[in-house]
Amino acid sequence: MTKLEIKNLHVEIEGKKILKGINLTISSPEVHAIMGPNGSGKSTLANVIMGHPRYEVTKGEILFNDKSILDLEPDERAKLGLFLSFQYPMEVEGLPFNTFLQEANKSLHPKTEQTLMEFKKLIKEKSKELGLKEDLPQRDLNVGFSGGEKKRAEILQMLTLKSKMAILDETDSGLDIDSLKFVSDAVNSVRGGEFGALVITHYVRILNHLKPDFVHVLVDGKIVASGDKKLADELDEKGYVKFLAEQGIEIKNEELL
Amino acid sequence: MPKTLTKQEKAAAITDYSKYDFSVDAAYDLILEKGLSEKTVAAISKIKNEPKWMLDLRLKAFKAFKKMAMPKWGADLSKINFDDIIYYMKPKATDSKSWDDVPEEIKNTFERLGIPEAEREFLAGVGAQFDSEVVYHNLRKELEEKGIIFLSMDEGLKQFPEIVKKYFTKIIPHNDNKFAALNTAVWSGGSFVYVPKNVQSDIPLQAYFRINAERIGQFERTLIVAEPGSKIHYIEGCTAPVYTADSLHSAVVEVVALPNSKVRYTTIQNWSSNVYNLVTKRAFAYENATVEWVDGNLGSKVTMKYPAVYMLGQGAKAEILSIALAGKGQSQDAGAKAVHLAPNTTSNITSKSISKEGGRSSYRGILQIAKNAKNCKANVVCDALLIDDKSRSDTYPTIKVDNPTASLTHEATVGKIGEDQLFYLMSRGLTESQALTLIVLGFIQPFVKSLPMEYAAELNRLIELEMEGSIG
């Protein structure tokens, strides 16, 4: 089993408090979803779990399989099986996607018996499943990729690197209906067993495909409601303002922009 | 929060010059006293038993050198003490055609640098210079039979005085600049390459320049003449042991590319951190000839080098591709000159620089299109990558266009490796230095692609060593 535990997590960036006491436990094969208005701290949570150096954890813990990962570098966290699908994947000129993925795979799985040929074949297969163009892995990493290609390429990385705990940070944003289905099907194909995921999204759309086990609502750095998929549907129907007002939380419309 | 690398780990990156940092206890036939005078110049000429015209030329150049001021632009050269340099050291060896005839300790030097092995595997010919003199020269038999001449400059002067006299200082005049004047006065060694009409070789020739002694000046002189329709690729590599006293390497390279010929000149310079590398390189490209300078600057304390192509004939082409890596204490002032003197000529300049740990790199270039040069195309791209906040990159482009039909593009970018870019690669399991190395290798990819495979692999390896643990 893979377990990611977040305990009373407080996070600041440049002195500004972003997360104010998050508690969340994801045990494989669960898939959790986090929804929330803009600026509520969703991306901060994703980046902090992966170890982005700009964020400061002022209080609380992040445990991976019962061990604290707060002192680990992002690459060390990746070696445990953590994966972050970036909201805005970075471009690197002159570095072919394939080369990058092979280097990452070597680093993550040094003892693998998989040959390079087998790995390349896997990349090819998974690219096809995700509806990516055949020449994409030969192109420079994310350079000239369309918005949708970038997001699908993130999922291609997740699948080929055999991650165990994936955080999908607005992977659905900017995807057309077909791409959304490709991505959801791909994530669903690895569900079960050792794999767990945290899906960060604005929209119910992707959740209709992924059918998460739990849904949480994040507002102003705190989880204000948790439930099952029905919670997402309720949120979708009412909108944040009405939903939160019923919870006794007032937010202004401009905070949603 | 994630830890950062220790100072020691960072420092480890630039100190890894171990493969090149050794000197051998070689025997020398003759070592001139330190310092520079007319006597020094005359002594070098006499040792070489040169014709009078060469001695006269040397003396004329020496006068010009004395008159000229140090350049007031570019890198800081104020620490060069011309009186504290040995201008000529003749190793106890002759210019041999077989490695077996090269003295043991000198042969060992080149073996440690992998030269004989490279020669066996993929080179058409090799020249090896040890301090002031060339100690080995050989060319594959089939190329010799085709009439290609590949000799040390000294041998070239002895065996082909007419060709040498015809071109020597005609591309780079004896008083072109202070360091070209110095080289003309005290030159020793270097290569003489002559490619007959329509003879083409795809396999490269290589010259390797090695400084062994301390406080020495190495002043090799190279002349390449490509007759019409010929094709040649010449590669040079350079290293030296690390000494506390500074050394001076001041070369002059003249290339003549006659109509429809193609010359590619590749340099991988990896001098030690105490070498001033002040080099003048220029080519004349005649009708439909192509000259390519592929210039890699990894080492040295200070480099000032701006390979030039003068396009003298219709349809001539210049390709100048350079990379510079400026690490701690290094100043890489490099660039290119493309001078369009004939119609329908084309130039492409691509310059990539990487600065780290307080290193400073500059792109300095001239693009000139003469009045009568109609329909020229010129393209300049210079990209700089900064690894940290301490390092610096500058661009000094000069563009002079006297013909309105020219089509020009000029692009310059300066990028800093961002925290977000590193975080992205690290989130996939790559360490900070692995991530940095991949970004840097990607950045210089256009340069690496233009190298022969073996050199590309070697360059990648060097960059990996340089980048290891070198985090800003």
Radius of gyration of chain A: 18 Å
CATH class of chain A: Alpha Beta
Q: What is the N-to-C order of secondary-structure elements of chain A (H for helix, E for strand)?
A: EEEHEEHEHHHEHEHEEHH
Tally of DSSP helical segments of chain B: 13
Name the CATH architecture of chain A. 3-Layer(aba) Sandwich
Q: What proportion strand of chain A?
A: 25-35%
Beta-strand segment tally of chain A: 10
Distance between the termini of chain A: 39 Å
Largest protein interface, residues of each chain? A-B, 37 and 27 residues
The main pleated sheet of chain A reads as: 6 strands, mixed
Strand percentage of chain B: 35-45%
Mean pLDDT of chain A, to the nearest integer, reads 93
The gyration radius over C-alpha positions of chain B equals 22 Å
> What is the approximate shape of chain A?
globular
Q: What is the CATH T-level topology of chain A? A: Rossmann fold
Low-confidence stretches of chain B: 1-15
Task: Present the secondary structure layout.
The complex is a heterodimer of chains A (257) and B (472).
Chain A lengths: L2 E11 L2 E12 L3 E5 L6 H9 L5 E9 L2 E2 L5 H7 L1 E4 L11 H12 L7 H14 L17 H14 L4 E5 L7 H13 L6 E6 L3 H6 L3 E6 L2 E6 L1 H10 L1 H7 L11
Parallel strand pairs in A: 3-8, 3-9, 6-7, 7-8
Antiparallel strand pairs in A: 1-2, 1-4, 4-5, 9-10
Helix pairs in contact in A: 4-5, 5-6, 8-9
Chain B lengths: L6 H9 L12 E4 L6 H10 L4 H16 L21 E3 L12 H9 L2 H8 L2 E6 L2 E7 L1 H5 L3 E4 H7 L1 H7 L10 H9 L4 E5 L9 E6 L6 E2 L2 E6 L4 E9 L7 E3 L2 E6 L4 E8 L5 E11 L4 E8 L4 E4 L2 E4 L5 E10 L4 E10 L5 E10 L4 E10 L7 E10 L5 E10 L5 E10 L2 H8 L5 H12 L1 H4 L4 H15 L5
Parallel strand pairs in B: 3-7, 6-9, 7-10, 8-11, 9-12, 10-13, 11-14, 12-14, 13-15, 14-16, 14-17, 15-18, 16-19, 17-19, 18-20, 19-21, 20-22, 21-23, 22-24
Antiparallel strand pairs in B: 1-2, 3-4, 5-6
Helix pairs in contact in B: 2-3, 3-9, 7-8, 10-11, 11-13
